[in-house]
Amino acid sequence: MAAGTSSNVHLHDIPDVILSNIFSLETETRTRNAMSLVCLKWLLLERSTRKSLTLRGNIRNLFHLPTCFRAVTHLDLSFLSPWGYPLLDSFSNPLVLAQFLRHAFPSVVSLIVYVRNPLTLHLLASQWPNLQHVKLVRWHQLWPAAPVGSDLVPLFDHCPMLSSLDVSHFYCWTEDLPPVIQAYPSIATSLSHLNILKHDSSTDGFKSHQLLSITACCPNLRKLLATCIFNPRFIGFISDQTLLTLALNCPLLSLLHLADSTSMSNVRPNLIEDASISFATLGDVFSKLPLLEELVLDVCHNVKHTWPALELLNTKCPMLKSLRLGQFQGICRGIASPPDGVALCQGLESLSIKNCTDLTDKALIAISHGCHRLSKFEILGCNQLTRKGMWEFTHNLRKTLVDVKISYCKNLNAVSSLQALEPIRDRIVKLHIDCVWASIIGEEKSLKNWSKLKYLSLWIAVGELLNPLSLSGLNDCPSLEEIQIKIQGDCRDQPKPFMDAFGLSSLTCYPNLTRMILDCSGVTGYALTAPVGHTDLSLWERFFLSGIQDSTLNELNYWTAQDVDVNQRCLFLPAAGLLARCGSLRKLFIHGTANEHLMMFLLGNPTLRDVQLREDYYPAPDNDTITEMRVGSCCRFEDALNSSSRHVPD
């Protein structure tokens, strides 16, 4: 305590204005909830300063709806149960429910909501006419015979102050948006953020004329994200003229993200066909967008000899901080003593290079000298790079680089990738590598401490094991908090697993690991009875999840494997039994379908307090069979989960 201060000074003596500012600076939900438990004054202060809230639970339990968050401006209703069903259909008078939500949260200007039918937006949008940002979510197919754009019309009718619209997770046709944008010119003019980037390869991209009609109506866009068609064999592909006109339509863009509709799929890139985009046109486009701060062009078709155009980015777009290029060739020659191409973009802090077939070690080293501020770097599908070149790259950027992704690079397997990252081993915070163990046998192993690594992402082929991860050099990660594992492949081509478990038990060497994303959505197999000589998905699921009962996970997102022939992604008996034995698990989100009696298995886990079944994939099943989870099944499970007879330690 400083000299001259009174020993009677108490925390409550801090002026309310200062204390309120302190509370406002804290954004982590669990920390705020802990602060609210200190005393009644802090409880009221926390509730009055909360700006963002995500509602969970069943919509029918209105008596649980909080009414003390009057200052909330961002409200997320997309996770309410029963998930994926019309939000307001649980009540005979849905208007009353919409009015009740408005009364509980009168200050909302930002809304995320699952919109199964147009009625939801019609009732909710009218309650908050001052909405500025709206994100719509829907994974189910369109209602039959619905007029074009009918889902969006209520939003534009009732929200004249709309400035940001996100439909990236909203299942709709590309034909729905342009006529609505054109019908409301005043709102279109005020739009500054438009996200029409679809996160699934099964949906079509926007055609050239559709994209231009949208941007012509929205001249004040600052951020535009869109899925497009760059394949020149398709009608409406993005051409030189499209990019030039787009830049003229929206000269104020600070973020431009254009990705081909195939960029989200697992299909290998098309390295033969060229896009109808020239480097000369790219230079003209960059000169017309001087305010660019983030640029993504994931074309999925070759754009050749791009280094002259990329050199212009440094002078024409001086504020550019983030750049992501997909299938751009010749981005840096690396042969001259002064930097060239993308290496001249000295202000870059984030760089992603995908499927650049002519990127060499010398070019990569030149980029590290020119882009000396890089803190994030991603390299995908660049097969000429070696461990030596990547080591030199990370060595040159050892003072700034903290986030690295290395994937689909032929010469960089798990061991060589980690060895290449040795110069930043004590600094890196976020890492992705592919679990290719080809050279792990015979490599010299030594204890490696990755002291600051908090997030680890892994890709692994179906049939491979996770156990060699610790042997590859990632055995000591004391700060690791979250891991994401993406398993991909066709089980139908695989023999029965030769080991009992995939290797999740090996993750117990990470003492602070509490969150996991286990994504098996890229695994295909037989959901029903497999043919003779093959293994069905239930046994593969046992293989993947065995060992999870030994983990210390608090939160798990689990994407189930799929049978593409019957469009089924479901939880099987082995998974239900193993998840029920994971004694530390508090939150469980299953991305797929399940039978009610299997969900009831989860009640045997004494620590589970938050479970949700999400069918968030295209197209989500609309007509469930009699044994799968429906509204009644979901309600029965949630009642049992939240029953007073279950004592959940907190």
UniProtKB/TrEMBL annotation:
Any one annotated GO CC term: nucleus
Pfam families given in the database record: F-box_5
Superkingdom, taxonomy of origin: Eukaryota
GO BP, sorted A to Z: SCF-dependent proteasomal ubiquitin-dependent protein catabolic process
CDD domains attached to this UniProt entry: F-box_AtTIR1-like
Domain COI1 F-box: from-to ranges: 14-51
UniProt xrefs under PANTHER family: COI1 F-BOX DOMAIN-CONTAINING PROTEIN, PARTNER OF PAIRED, ISOFORM B-RELATED
Protein name: COI1 F-box domain-containing protein
Organism: Gossypium gossypioides (Mexican cotton)
